[in-house]
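re: ur msg from earlier - yeah i can do the adenosine-5'-diphosphate complex, just paste it... oh wait u already did. ok heres what im feeding in:
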Amino acid sequence: MMFPRVDRDPKRVPEQLKCALRGLLRGKLPWPAYVFGPAGVGKTCAALLVHDTVPEAFWADAELLAEHAYEAESWPWRFAARAQLVIVDEVGCRSRYSEREYLAIKRMADQCHRLAIPALWVSNLSPEQLRQHFDDRVFSRICCGTVVPVKGKDQRFFRRQNGESLQRA
Ligand SMILES: Nc1ncnc2c1ncn2[C@@H]1O[C@H](COP(=O)(O)OP(=O)(O)O)[C@@H](O)[C@H]1O
Ligand SMILES: [Mg+2]
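and the outut:
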């Protein structure tokens, strides 16, 4: 029996985000990229689509990096050092690890910069909220390239409002 797949549909990526990602992947817009917007607009799905198209992309959420913040030799840092693209989702979403998350994000940003690896940061926080959640140092490291605001409906609800079956094969 085939286990059902959850499809990531490029057509459902919000237009402004699609445009920016295309520009970034073609080298027309500067890295790093900071993508932000409210929950459910499709940021994670869009980043996963990017991950699908870049053969050696590294994916982590900020919480995972925070868990490894003090382990200089552990696998996320080594894997990310060899990647063609580093994607970090859920930046600034947790307060539980805020000190560790701060160190981890700063460290990943510095590592990417040192090794000239493009980084895609995804968050629900606006750049100004990010600055307040962390500080100027994190803000300047991850918002210094292309900042992409994403607007739109929460697709988690939109899907149901449209009457699309939740059990679609
Ligand atoms: N490109 C897409 N293809 C398919 N489903 C999507 C897409 N974008 C969003 N969705 C649906 O909307 C939900 C929320 O999207 P997600 O990317 O997790 O939002 P965000 O990261 O902005 O909170 C997903 O779980 C999925 O069901
Ligand atoms: Mg998300």
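cool cool. The pocket of magnesium ion (ligand 2) is lined by residues 43-44, 89 (CB under 6 Å). ping me if u need the other ligands too
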